[in-house]
Amino acid sequence: MRPIIPDYLAEVLGDVEPDASGEPAGYIPELAAADPDRLGAAFATIGGEVYGVGDSDIEFTIQSISKPFAYALALSDRGFDSVLAKVGVEPSGEAFNEISLESDTGRPLNPMINAGAITVHSLTGAEDLNPAERVERVLHGLSAFAGRRLRMDEAVCASEMETAHRNLAIAHMLRGHGILTGDPRPIVEGYVRQCSVLVTTRDLAVMAATLANRGRNPLSGDQVVPETVVRQVLSVMFSCGMYDAAGDWATQVGIPAKSGVAGGLIGALPGQIGIATFSPRLDRHGNSVRGVSLFERFSSDMGLHVMEVPAAARAVVRSHHVVGSGPGALRVLRLQGGIGFAGAERIVREAEEIPSSDVRVALDLTRVHSIDDVARRMVLEVARRLTLDGHEVYLVDPESIIPDPDPGDGGRVTVVDTWNALT
Amino acid sequence: MRPIIPDYLAEVLGDVEPDASGEPAGYIPELAAADPDRLGAAFATIGGEVYGVGDSDIEFTIQSISKPFAYALALSDRGFDSVLAKVGVEPSGEAFNEISLESDTGRPLNPMINAGAITVHSLTGAEDLNPAERVERVLHGLSAFAGRRLRMDEAVCASEMETAHRNLAIAHMLRGHGILTGDPRPIVEGYVRQCSVLVTTRDLAVMAATLANRGRNPLSGDQVVPETVVRQVLSVMFSCGMYDAAGDWATQVGIPAKSGVAGGLIGALPGQIGIATFSPRLDRHGNSVRGVSLFERFSSDMGLHVMEVPAAARAVVRSHHVVGSGPGALRVLRLQGGIGFAGAERIVREAEEIPSSDVRVALDLTRVHSIDDVARRMVLEVARRLTLDGHEVYLVDPESIIPDPDPGDGGRVTVVDTWNALT
Amino acid sequence: MRPIIPDYLAEVLGDVEPDASGEPAGYIPELAAADPDRLGAAFATIGGEVYGVGDSDIEFTIQSISKPFAYALALSDRGFDSVLAKVGVEPSGEAFNEISLESDTGRPLNPMINAGAITVHSLTGAEDLNPAERVERVLHGLSAFAGRRLRMDEAVCASEMETAHRNLAIAHMLRGHGILTGDPRPIVEGYVRQCSVLVTTRDLAVMAATLANRGRNPLSGDQVVPETVVRQVLSVMFSCGMYDAAGDWATQVGIPAKSGVAGGLIGALPGQIGIATFSPRLDRHGNSVRGVSLFERFSSDMGLHVMEVPAAARAVVRSHHVVGSGPGALRVLRLQGGIGFAGAERIVREAEEIPSSDVRVALDLTRVHSIDDVARRMVLEVARRLTLDGHEVYLVDPESIIPDPDPGDGGRVTVVDTWNALT
Amino acid sequence: MRPIIPDYLAEVLGDVEPDASGEPAGYIPELAAADPDRLGAAFATIGGEVYGVGDSDIEFTIQSISKPFAYALALSDRGFDSVLAKVGVEPSGEAFNEISLESDTGRPLNPMINAGAITVHSLTGAEDLNPAERVERVLHGLSAFAGRRLRMDEAVCASEMETAHRNLAIAHMLRGHGILTGDPRPIVEGYVRQCSVLVTTRDLAVMAATLANRGRNPLSGDQVVPETVVRQVLSVMFSCGMYDAAGDWATQVGIPAKSGVAGGLIGALPGQIGIATFSPRLDRHGNSVRGVSLFERFSSDMGLHVMEVPAAARAVVRSHHVVGSGPGALRVLRLQGGIGFAGAERIVREAEEIPSSDVRVALDLTRVHSIDDVARRMVLEVARRLTLDGHEVYLVDPESIIPDPDPGDGGRVTVVDTWNALT
C-alpha cells in the first residue's frame, strides 16, 4: 500500500512551494547565506512514528524554538515559583526583540521574548553551575527532547555574539533590576549558544511530539520533563509563541507553536502530534512564510485547532436496562467510549434514577475506551452512594480500565469480567 | 442516591465562601449597592443539564461578559472579513479600559477591550439598523445564547451612561479613525445597553455551554451562531478574556473565559461544559476574586485545562489477526475507542504491513466510539489504497459510525454488520 | 530716507518665497482651500510701531496660536493655582494631537497640546459663565491682545466641528478624569470657536508684541494681562510651543513661539519685539515651512535668540575718583549704562574699597540708562552700609532714575542734581 | 563696609537650611555616605568675582552636571553636524535614566539624559583617541571651564562602575543602533570617570559663569568653547536640564540649569552670572531639594528669569533737536543707553522724519552704553540712506562705541568727538 501520510505531506508541500515571498534573516552572514528555497516538514506522533518530507533532514540552528524547551528545563530544574518570580506569562503583543519588562519589577513579560529567554537560560540547571555547565545542561536537555545528541553551530554562534548588542543591552537591564544575578555577558553567550544548536525538521517534530506526549519522548520513552511543566509550556506557547502575530495564529491555526529566525517552526497538539516545518524566508513578524502556510493547511485539513470541538461521539451510556426480575434482577448500565467529565455527568444522572428497589446494579465498562481522572472518581462516587443507598454494585471491567477500584468511605464494589455471570 | 455534582459544587463554594477580599465595582451607585456576599456557581453540560448552587438564580448585569457573545453575533451577521477589518485579535496585555488601538489603523487590538467591544456592537445586525434595532438584535442574540428572553436593567443602564466619559472618548477616537462610521453617542448608548442585560449565573452557564457545544444551545437546540464563529470566539477568549491577567489565567486555569465587572465570570470548555460563577468583589484586574478561585478549583479538580493531555487511552487497534487460512482467510483489524488523527495514523501503519497475499481485509469498527473527520477520511483512504493493491475490503460497522462510506477513486468497500459472517 | 525695516523684511520674504515645499492643512475643506502661496510677515515693536510686508493684511484663522493667549487669560481670570492644578507645564515631546495626559491625574502635560488647550478654554472667564459667554470672554481677550475687535470665521468653525472627533475624544477623556467638569461638547465647541478667530499677520505681531511688552498692548496701551502671567506664558511657549520640534526651535531660533495650522506663526522676544509670519504650507510637525525659515533668518540676522549673550557693554563704573582734598574731599563713583545684578555687583565691590577716611561719597547716576529692581536695591544697600560706616552719601540723579530713594534702616542719602554742587 | 553679596547669600542659605526633606542618592555607598547636611552656594560673575558661602569649598563628584560641559566640548571638537547626527535636542519629559531613544534612528533624544550623555562622551576629542585619552580630554576640558586642574574620585568611580548595569544596557542598545561605534564598556567607563570628577561649589559657579560669559572663563580669560556652542548648550539646558521637572523649573526659576545626583546644581544666566549650590538631599526628580529652593529665591529676589522683561529703560532717543539755523543748522539726535533692535528701530523712525532741508545730521552716541550687532548695522544703514538722500552725516562717538564705522555702498560718515565742534 502506498504510504498515506507522506503522500499528504508531499502534496501540501507542493502547494506552498512556489511562494517565494519574505526574506531570510539577514542580520548575520551565516543566516543570510542559508538557501532560501529549502522546504521541509515533519510529523511525529506520540506513538513514535516520524514522517518527514522535503528537506527534513537538513540541519539548521534552532534559534528561538529553543525558548519553550529551555523554559521547560528551567521549570523542571528550579520549580515554578523560582521561575515565575523572574519571568511572567503575559503576552506582550510586541515584536520578539522588544524589551517588554514589567515597569515595577523589571520582570520580562514572558519567556518567549528575548528578555524572558535570556533570564530562562540563567535559570536552567542548578544555581551553582558555571556558564559552560549551564550550556551543557541545556544542550543535554534539548537533546533529550530530540532523542539524539545535538551539537552547536560554532560559526553561527560566534557571528551572533558579534552582533548581540541588543541582547547584551537587555541582559544588563535585567542585571540592573536584579532579575539576572551574575555577569550578564556569559549569560548572553550561553543563550546565544543555546540558539545555535543544530536541529533538523525531524528533530523539531520529535521535540514537539515530546510536548504533545506529556513530556515523554515518544522515541526514547524518556520522561524529559514533568507533565505539569508541559501544560505550562504549551499554554505560554499558545499565547506568546508567535510574537505580535500571536492572536492571528491562535485564531487561524490554534496550535501551541514557536518559530525561529532560521526558518524553523514547531507546533505541539496535546495528546496528538508534534509538527515541524522549515523554510527560511520570514514574514514581517519574523515567522517563516511557508511554515505559516503549511500550518494553516495542516490545521484546516486535519482539524487540529485546540478550540475545535471534537466530533460528536456516541452516547456514553450505550444502554440501561434491567435483566431478570424479582430480587435477583440486575440493573445494567452499559457504558462505552471515552469518558470525561461530561460523560461521567451523564452516568451520574442515569444512576440517580435507579429505584431503590433495584438492589443489584452493574456498571459495564467493557466497551469503555478511556476514562480520565475526574470521570473515574465520579464513577466510583456513584458506586459509593449506591452502596450507601442499599444497592449491591458490580463493575464489569474485564480489562481493568479502573484498576484497583476503591469507592471510599462506606462504598463497596465487586469487579467481574462479564455481567452474564451475575444473571 | 444523593446528587453528586451539586454536592461537589456546594463543597467548593463552601471552601471559597469565607474569602472577603476585593471590592465590588464602585464607579456607579447601582453596582456599588450590590450585595458583595453573593456567591453562586453553575455548570451547564452540552447535554443540556444545568446544575446551580448558591445564588445562581440572582439576576445581575452581564457587563463585559456580553463581549464574546456580541463578537459571535457580529461575526455571524457581517462575516469574518468585515469584522476583522475593524477589530484585531491580538492580546493587548493591558487593562480593560485601555484604549489599545493599532497605531497606524486605529483598529482596536481585540474585541475584549472596550474599544473593540464598542466597535463590535456597531457591527452587530445589518448595517442599516437604527440604534434601537441594533440593541434589539443584540438582546435577541444574547437571549438565544441563554435560551430565554433576557431584559435590561434600565437603572444600571442610565447610571452607566452618566459616567460613560471614557467610553465616549474611545468612541470619538474610533470615529476619528473611521472605525466607527456613525454618531459615536448612540453607539456607546447601545453598547451600555448591551452591558446592562440582566442574567443569572445559570443563564451564563448555558450561554457558555452554547459556545462549548459548537454554537448550539443545549437547552433549546437552536444553532445560535455557526461553528467557525465559535472557534474564533473561544480562541480570542483564551488569549484576551481576562485582561492583563490573561497569561496567569491561561496557564493556571486554561479555560476560554470572560469576566464582567458586576461579578460574573464564565468559562467554556469546548465539547464539554459551560461554567459560570457570580461573586461581586473584584481583584485589581477587575476579575471576581472568588470567581477566579472557583475556576482554579474546577480546573484543577476536573482536569479541564485545554492544554491538559487527555488520559492515555486504550490502543486504537484492539487486535490484528488472521482468521482462517488459504484463499478464504480474512485479515481482521479490530479497532476501538475514539479515533482522531493520531489513532488513524496508527491504523495506517498497521494497514501498510498487510501482505498482498492476504486478499480479504476487514476493518472492524464495532467498538469504535467516535471518529473525527480527518480520521474518517484516512480510514477510507486506507480502504481505497488496499483496494488498489488488490485487496477486498470490508467495513464491519453495525452502527454506521462511518455513514455512507465512499473511499473515492478506485476504492471499494463492503459494509457488513459482523465479521463472523465473512468467515 | 527709504524705510529700512520694510526693506529688510521684503528682502527676507523674497529669499524664502520660492520654497513651495510642505502642504497646507487639508483636514477640512476651508483650510485646504487656502491659497498656499500667501506669504506675509510683520514686526510689532514694544514702542507700538508695526511693520508689515507681503500678505500681512490677509485674514486667516488663528488656530493653535490662540493657545498661549487663552492660557494667559485663564491664568489672569482664575489664578495660577487653579490653572496649574488642571494643566501642567512639562514639554510632551509629542505631536500636537497626542493626548499626553499625566498617567495618575489625567492632567494634560501642557497648555500647548490640544488636551491642555481645551482645558484652558474651560478655565477662561469666571467659573459660572455659560458657553457663549466664555467664547465672548476669549474673543474679547484675544481682541485686547490684538488691539482691535476680532471676529470668527463661522464656516471654518462649523467645518472643524464636523471633524472634531479627536478633540471630542480628548474632552470626554478629560471629563472622565474630572479635569473638565461640564459637558464636554460645548467646551470643545467653544475651543473650536476660539481657534476660528480671524487675524491678520499684523494682528498676530501686535499680539506677540503685547507679550514682549510685559502684557501691555503697545498700540492701545491696555494692560491685557499681568506681568507674572506673561513670564509664565513665554516660558511655556519656549519649551512647548513648537510641538515635537520644540528642541530644534529652542536651539536654532530661540524665541518663545507658537504656530497654527492655518499657517500663522508668532514669536515674542521679551522686552523687544513681536513677530508674526503667515504661509499656509506646513512641515511634518505642523509648522509653517516658510514661517520657520523666516524666523531662522530673523533670529540669525538680528541676534534675537534668548540665549544670545548681549553685546559686551561699557563698564558700569565709568570712573572712580576723589575730587578735592581734606575734609571737603568728595569721592565720586560715576556710573553709566544699564545696571542689572552684574553691574550692581561691580558697584558693590568698588564701594567696599572706599576708605573710611573719605567721608563724603557721591554715586553719580546721571549717565545710567536703566536700573533693574535688584540693582536698585543693591545700590541703596550700598548707601545704607556706607552711612552706617560713617559716610555721607549723595545720589546724583537729575532724572530720578531711582525715584524716592530709601536706603532703609540706618541709611540716609541726599539726592542732588549734579555733583559739581558738592565740591 | 560690610560685604553685601555674602550677606545676602548667607541670609538665603540660613532660610533654606532647616529643610531636611529628601534623601541623598543611595545607589552606591560612596554617595550614601555623604554628609546630607552639607549646604553651600556660590556666585561667579562674568567679571571674575566669586562669592561662596557655606560648604562652598567642599569637593563632591560632578555627576550629571558634567553633561552640558561635555556636550560643549563635543560640539567644539566634532562640530554641530556630527553631534546632532547622533544626539537630538528634544525634551524627553522623562526621568534621567529613561532610555528615550528616537524610535526610528535610535538617536538619544537629548544630551542631558544618560543615553545622550554616554553618546556625547564618545564624541569628545578626536575620533581616534583611545579611551584613556578621551577621559583626559574631558578632564582637561572640565578643568578649563573651572579654571583649575580637577581630579577624579577613584572610589566613587570604581563603585559606580560596579552598578553601572543600566548605563551598560543603554550603551549596548546604542551600539546596536550604530550610535556608538566602539566597544560599549570602555565608553561607559569613560562616562563614569567623567561623572566622578571632583568639584567644589565655587568651581561649579565658575564653570557656569564661563557659559554665562560666552564661553570665556572669567577667571583665566581662556575661551574654552566658541560662543555658538554656548548658545546651543544653554538652550538645551533650559529645556532638558532638570529632567521631568524641566517645565516647572523653566516657569518658576527660568535659568538654564543642570543638577547632579551628588547634590550639585548650577545655573547660568547669559551675560550675567553663574550660580552653583550644593546640598545632597534629592527630591523625587533627582534634583537637590535645598538647591531648588535656593535657585527659586535667587531667581525671585534678583529677577534672573530669562523671560523676565528687563526694566523699562530710558528712551534711546534722549533728544532730537536742531541747533542753529540756515544752511549751517545741525540736526542732532542724542542717543543714550543700551541699543538693541528695538532701540535701533526707534532711531530709524526718528531718522525717517528728518526733512531733506536739514542737510547736516549728527547722531550723538556719547551716552550710549552698549550697542549690539544688529543695532550697529541699522544705525550705519541710517547713515548710509541719509547720505544717499543728500545729508551730511556725523557720528559723535568719543569712545568709539562703533569702532571703524563703514555705512557701506554710497554712505559716508564723519566721526567727531563732540557735536559742539560742528556748530
Structural features, described:
Four copies of one chain form a homotetramer. By secondary structure, chain A is of the alpha/beta class. Chain A has two domains: 4-302, DD-peptidase/beta-lactamase superfamily (Beta-lactamase); 317-422, Transcription Regulator spoIIAA, CATH 3.30.750.24. Chain A is built from 15 helices and twelve strands. Chain A has helices at residues 4-16, 29-32, 66-78, 80-84, 114-122, 131-146, 154-162, 165-176, 184-195, 201-212, 227-240, 246-252, 289-302, 341-352, 373-388; strands at 40-45, 50-54, 60-61, 198-199, 257-259, 264-269, 273-278, 317-323, 330-339, 360-371, 392-396, 413-416. Chain A has a five-stranded antiparallel β-sheet. In chain A, strands 8-9-10-11-12 form a five-stranded mixed β-sheet, with helices on one face. The radius of gyration of chain A is 26 Å and the shape is elongated. Chain A starts with a helix and ends in a 7-residue tail after the last strand. Chains A and B meet through helix 11, helix 12, strand 9, helix 14 and strand 10 of A and helix 11, helix 12, strand 10, helix 14 and strand 11 of B.
What can be said about this structure in brief?
The structure is a homotetramer of 423-residue chains. Chain A has helices at residues 4-16, 29-32, 66-78, 80-84, 114-122, 131-146, 154-162, 165-176, 184-195, 201-212, 227-240, 246-252, 289-302, 341-352, 373-388, and strands at 40-45, 50-54, 60-61, 198-199, 257-259, 264-269, 273-278, 317-323, 330-339, 360-371, 392-396, 413-416. By secondary structure, chain A is α/β, with parallel strands linked by helices.
